[in-house]
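Q: I'm writing up a methods section and want to include an example of the input and output format. Could you take the sequence below and give the corresponding predicted structure tokens, formatted cleanly so I can copy it straight into the document?
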Amino acid sequence: MKRNLLAALAIVGSVGLVTCAQSGGGDGDGTQTAQAGGMMAPMFEVDPFWPKPLPNHWVLGSVVGVGVDSRDHVFIIHRQAPLNERTEIGASTDPPTGECCLPAPYILEFDPEGNLVNGWGGEGEGYDWPTSNHGITIDPMDNVWIGGNGRGDSHILKFTRDGRFLQQIGTPGIMEANSNTSEHFGEVAKISFDAEANEAYLADGYVNKRVAVLDISTGEFKRYWGAYGNEPSDEDLGPYDPEAPLAQQFRTPVHCAEPSNDGLVYVCDRPNDRIQVFQSDGTFVTEKIIAPLTRGDGSTWDIAFSRDPEQTYMYVADGKNMKVYVMDRQSLEILTTFGDGGRQPGLFFAVHSIATDSQGNIYTTETYEGKRVQKFVYRGLGPVTVMDQGAPWPTGGN
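A: Here is the clean output for your methods example:
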């Protein structure tokens, strides 16, 4: 019976691949991509059983960050506020309207097998929990850093991996934009790290329009810059227009700033549908426009690198178009994509954040009504047979 079931799954997977191959193709929106066929790219399969079910009737709200520590433990952060009391968390009301469910703690930690090993976060002594927490990243010492994009979230927080408070950097409660200050921030989307230089890179962010760099150990402010390495401006540029000349400043939110091993920094200028690349001192190098007809939320939400020493590949989460781009990091060429809009494993509803572990696996989170984390298992390099893969469903043989 088990053999028959596996055979049936394999047939379904094969049919899905054939369907994708027949319906796939270019992006249709002007994005410059490689032609499918003849090239190799990292290949992934979604693990529909990761993570394992949460205990205590816990459910996730909008999941807005994912990070991986030195043990390949996966940390996610979510928002409890978007959970609907009537339809999702009846057990938390007074009086309860049902047996299920309850908001999970803000920060959850999973081991590589998907077991929940810890949960913590929220208000505590000595620090100001963000009005709307945003992003989670693990530094080279396995400490946990978070930002926030709510009103007055002009600071960032640092904890040990088990939730002990270490440091608050910046002055909370500042609501006005000031992209040229060293005293506070403007709703930081994400923090990333250069271990060799002992520096933290802030995508700053939802009110400010810049990259800011700090000392990891002390939190000392070191430098900052805007688009093209310009001095940042807080001028309101208005909505993105794909027909207009390229904006000389970032739009909000500046959603990621990822340093690479070879001294470059890749910045998600999300509403402008572009990735800008800089030297670590803020000198502009190049840029890549992705899905340039994307309006509103934009196409470049988050970046993660492959774990080989050269970081050959770059993975870009596109929450508006519900997919992940697999790119050559040096050339910025799009090799293939996976995902599509939907709620089944391997599909996305607003894929928000992305991270890799030491084995090359990818983890993604989904915000808005997506409310989940997914794992995509690295299956090695394979030939690109279709540009848009859709859901990278298991083939049945693994």
